[in-house]
Design a protein that fits this description.
By secondary structure, the chain is mainly β. The longest helix is centred in the N-terminal third of the chain and has 27 residues. It has 2 domains: 30 residues; 180 residues, Lipocalin (Beta Barrel). Helices cover 12% and strands 40% of the residues. It has a 6-stranded antiparallel barrel with strand order 1-3-6-7-8-16. A 4-stranded mixed β-sheet has the order 5-4-10-9, with no helix packed on it. The protein has a two-stranded antiparallel ribbon with strand order 2-15. The N and C termini lie far apart (59 Å).
Amino acid sequence: MNRMIIVVLIGALAASICYGQESTSTPGQAGPAAIGHGSFPVKIISTLDSSKLKDGDAVQVETAGSFKLADGTLVQKGSKLTGYVTAAKARSKGDPASELSVVFNKLNVANGKQLSIKGTVQAVSSPPDEAAPQMAGKASGAAGGGYTGATVGTVTNSQSGSNMETSGSSQPGMDPKAVGVQGMHDLSLEDGVLRSKGKNVKLGNGVRMILRVDILG
């Protein structure tokens, strides 16, 4: 009888230890820390329409200029960023506005490498005149890419406390310091959420967005 009691007590003690380990380890886990941050322009390549999208739908844009990461990696113009819809609503009777919100979580760089990011919309502008771009600086001879073209700055490391740095003039709609909505009527942007008093929020091909991005690695 005593032996059975001892066995039961040992089993209960082992179970409580395991439960304690699980309950203390899970809350302490944290997401990946940002290794760099900055703001840069992207171009919409497939129309975003809040009346046709729903939460969780995948979206894709591409970089509208080149820029460098904190480690010197050049992200070429046309690199793809992927993300998803977090809110999409057409305005119906009684609604004050239609809404659209997207976030981005992946950035493709050279040689098939993909970085995890946390990106939100900082600014939106109508498509600029692409005939004579005037972005800052010249970048040439990117390793393995043979890329030559304009750069729009550098994504700084996480300790710098500054956004992407640029020099010279930039093409309208491509200033990394821009905020809000520029050149588009009946559209507002607040905390990453686009709102319109029209029946839907619709951003066509070529519309520019400035993304504020944390590079997670």
